[in-house]
Amino acid sequence: MMKYTPWFIRAIVILLIVIVALTSCNQEKNESKITIGEVTRSVFYAPEYVAVAQGFFEEQGLEVDIQTTAGGDKTMAALLAGSVDIALVGAETSIYVYQQGAEDRVINFAQLTQTDGTFLFARNTEDTFDWDQLRQSTFLGQRKGGMPQMAGEFALSKHGINAHQDLELIQNVDFANIASAFASGTGDYVQLFEPQASIFEQEGRGKVVASFGTESGKLPYTVFMTKQSFINDNQEVVQKFTNGLHKAQLWVDSHTAEEIAEVILPFFKDIDPAILISSVNRYKEQGTYATDPIIDEDEWNNLLDVMSAAGELKERVDAEVIVDNAFAEHAASK
């Protein structure tokens, strides 16, 4: 004779099955959630925001959370501490970590921008610009050892200007406060990212007179990177992330500044849409946004030249040591 199972026992069993299933789903969701630490919020990183806004990461089954950390040192500290999974920051920071002998190397796996993103902004708008005008001027620079400052010095040297001898160089202002320091009257010239450069032009504070991106050439200026241990444990997630990024890169490359600005506007709610369009257009015109995530050897070597010229490179680091192009190459081949 078949034994009868009381209804409440059957209900408990069903409830346990549901709880286990829900827990499993939540675990899977958490495994696909990625936290990005970006060095700053900038139009310079438009493809990153497009990937989120257009659902390209979501198509890959990823939930991406972007946190803005002010400065390369803070962004790298967050990555090393595990506060973020992936860092969007200058490739030079991974070299610094390697030079310090880190056991868990920081690996560059997907390039976002391929030129410097700063512009030379002059307070005086009356004269036609000539590089020699910088001599003996007060120059509000960026943090020592950071890519904006190193690329800026590299560009200046091409015009025969030694940043530490020919300028009154100010480097003691925090990255987040550089724009406000210039606005308050500090410096004759300043290095600015967009959209700040366009905002200052609109406000009549001066004008953009040169592009450090154009002057310093192509290099892996801003790269998505993570710890080797994270890659070892999450190869599928890293691949999906790179796939979504590449789709965004292609989208940005094939759309107008107006279309891109409309998509990324939610990330810049306090900015005039016209300024956003101007900023995106300025970056597109000079080829700042990489069209694929591959970090090529020529760009890497140019980065090493820039760092060496700035005296920040102990020894040249071959790309294969801290660059893994496997994910980028797979994404680009699809």
Automatic annotation (TrEMBL):
Keywords: Signal. The keyword S-adenosyl-L-methionine does not apply. Its main location: periplasm. The keyword Signal applies. GO terms for cellular component: periplasmic space. It comes from the Bacteria. It is found in: Periplasm. Pfam families: NMT1_2 (PF13379). Belongs to the bacterial solute-binding protein SsuA/TauA family. This is NitT/TauT family transport system substrate-binding protein.
